[in-house]
Design a protein that fits this description.
By secondary structure, the chain is mainly α. It has 2 helices and no strands. The protein has helices at 19-36, 52-61. It has one domain.
Amino acid sequence: MADPIKIKVVGKRRAPATAEEAFRRAQVLQKQAERLNPIPRPRGFVFKAKTREEYERWRRNHPNPRLW
């Protein structure tokens, strides 16, 4: 039988005291992720493709991976 997977744990994660604190922490993490991402977040839009192949072609040719 294989050995169980060993996981290294460093420190302890502090659970948020309230829902508001959890939301605030999530906003901070989102802002940090936005700063690290070289591609800006796109405005919302709808892309309608007639076929799956047309959609795949559009997705491959688009430089921004956040659009799909």
